[in-house]
Amino acid sequence: MSEYDRNFSGEESSGDTAPDNPEKPGKVGPAEPERNDPQMADEDQTRIFLRRSRPRSSVMRFIRKAGRAISEADNILLGDEKPSSDKTVSRKTRRWGCLGAVLYFLFVVSTAALLAVVGWQAACDVLGLTGEDLLVQVTIEEDDTLLDVVTKLKESGMIRYPSLFKLYAEYSHAMDKIAPGTYTLSSEYDYRALVSGMMKYGTKKGTVDVTIPEGYTAEQIFTLLEEKEVCLKSDLETICADYDFKYSFLEGIGFGEPNRLEGYLFPDTYQFYIKDDAVSVIDKMLRNFDARLSDELRQAVTASGVPMRDIITIASMIEKEASVGIDRPLISSVIYNRLRIGMKLQIDATVLYALGEHKGIVTIEDTQFDDPYNTYVYYGLPPGPISNPGLESIKAAVSPADTEFFYYALREDGTHYFSKTYEEHQAFLNQHQAD
Predict the structure, then answer these.
(1) How far apart are CA 92 and CA 72, in angstroms?
(2) CA distance 126 to 189
(3) Facing residues of 181 across strands?
(4) Which of 182, 269, 286, 389 could be 315's S-S partner, Cβ–Cβ 3.0 to 4.6 Å?
(5) Which residue blocks in 247-369 are alpha helix, DSSP H?
(6) Taking the mean position of all CA atoms in its chain, how far away is CA 344?
């Protein structure tokens, strides 16, 4: 290969020959002719143009210097000594530069992973994606603040991040929607469902099943409902005394007394909300009473000629007196037989209702207590029902047995002995006392 060809290909001479061209020091080979030399062939001029168009070695030197500057900057960031003035980067510098890059990469990746985990956990808390299926009851009091609500939700396991729920509640004005009460909440609820579940008419309020036995008085029912945390007894008494429930069987009943709805609070098993509305609670029992009075039974009441109010009053006495079902129509016959001849009913249950007591034995002194409900003192039916009867007692009041009995007395087995005359009745009592 000629010297001219080596210069064109970019290869340097391996010898120490001094440059022949004083105008281009450091280059080996003869001076390059000018491209516009008319004596040169077109092919030679093109070769010279292409050679001058290739990147010069000064560009490569600039790139290498930039690389050294970057490496020295890494040394400074890592606390190494000042960058070396040597043009060649040391192995130590290169080693620390690579280590710094690795550490920085790990730092970025770790930070991103941490933020991703925290963000995912926060999102799971907001969306209720906890993976658990936990049901708890949370009670919100009348004077609870947002902080109180957040604390209760945190302690019950409904939320994990109180500050996040507090932020949501403030943004969504949750305290304007949350109402006092006891609510059944699930850990699978998202924040919006939790707030909805604590609203006044939400479907997630805590519930309780309450069984009202047949023959319970209104006062006993109110006490039971308060014990079950359904309503305050005082609220129930106020509603019963003054609220105008629109049912035909209540027409003509005056207002003002807590026992005004006695006899119509149908005994049954109910499901109520904890801290329920008193009107709703009473109305549920009245609706049940209305539903249990079938058309056939209503027609039977009409056919009997006895007002509905009197039917329920008689049924309430039967319910309190009868211990077994078979005695109900018989006790009903005794009541009707006495009413027919104008005889005092002398029913112990009416005395206890007048006294406001619940005890097993009625004394002679008790029977002398002056009260309109005391059928030992007053003739006819008491002013109203003395309990809330079940359906069988109502049916017995509508359809009494056809007997000539005027007396009955309790046997030891819970059944009653029925008599036509006072002498027969007294003979049974004497024998019973002797035994």
Answers:
(1) 11
(2) 9
(3) 140
(4) 389
(5) 278-292, 295-304, 308-321, 328-341, 348-355, 364-367
(6) 56
Rounded-to-integer distance, Cα 97 and Cα 103, Å = 10
Q: Which residues contact 103 (CB under 8 A, 6 or more apart)?
A: none
SS3 417: strand
Residue 148 backbone dihedrals phi, psi, to 5 degrees: -65, -45
DSSP 55: P
d(CA 109, CA 322): 82
Span of 188-192, 378-382, 414-418 with lowest mean pLDDT: 188-192
d(CA 23, CA 31): 8
Residue 66 or residue 186, greater confidence: 186
Nearest to 218 by CA among 378, 359, 356: 356
In the structure, how many helices (H) and strands (E) does the chain have? 17, 6
Measured CA distances, 270 to 175, 212, 284, 434 (Å) = 30, 8, 8, 46
- Among residues 382, 385, 425, the alpha carbon closest in space to that of 404 is found at 425
Residue pair 159/125 in contact (Cβ under 8 Å)? The answer is: yes
The sign one gets for the Cα dihedral 275, 279, 282, 286 is negative
Question: The tokens of 325 are what?
Answer: 């079902």
Distance CA 42, CA 58 (A): 29
Which residues are bridge partners to 197 per DSSP? none
- Cα separation, 203 vs 247, whole angstroms: 27
Query: Cα separation of 155 and 73, whole Å?
Result: 53
**Is a pLDDT exceeding 60 seen at residue 320?**
yes
Chain position carrying tokens 């947002």: 146
Burial class (CB in 10 A: 0-12, 13-18, 19+), 186: middle
Give per-residue pLDDT as tens, 200-239.
Answer: 665 556 789 999 999 999 999 999 999 999 999 999 999 9
Size of the chain, expressed as the number of residues it contains: 435
